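Run log, item B.
One chain of 171 residues. Sequence copied directly from the ordering sheet:
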Amino acid sequence: MNVNSIDNMQRGSNVKIITLRPQITQFIINELPFLLLCPVGLVYGGMENKPFAMIVLALAGIISLALLYKYIYMRCIKYHVGAEQLICEHGVFNRTVDYIELYRVVDFYENQTLMQQLFGLKTVAVFSMDRNTPKVDLDRQLLKPLSGTGQMFAYDSPEYVKDMGTPERYE
């Protein structure tokens, strides 16, 4: 994810808000089979005297439109991480903004497929006690750029974390 750190001066505070967006690499990894299938279907559908050419061309066109929508949707995703909230914005035609209080976060897990390992990516899921958004999936690009910058505070423990605290607590 691309990381942009902005000052929240318009609200009259010095709280840093980190804005994160997915990278194109994650889209390519997730949709690789369809990205390879579409050009093949378009070429085959464009050939004359081939069986089912029109059907293959129509399917390739529909898949291409679905991929375009998924790409636009991915580019509209934003995560804002502040001192007290994780804000998730997503949607193309219907924009949704979810607010998750950080004190409600109870657990997270990480998953890494072979392709994600090759590109240095990881899927991170955050579990919270929030009724509206009990689970949020975040990619490795969200946390990787923050590690070692002093903008993120965390520790690795197999134990249940009851009180995460806030960044001010560590200063």
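Observations after the first pass:
- The chain has a mean pLDDT of 75.
- The first strand starts at residue 2 and ends at 7.
Flagged for discussion on Thursday.
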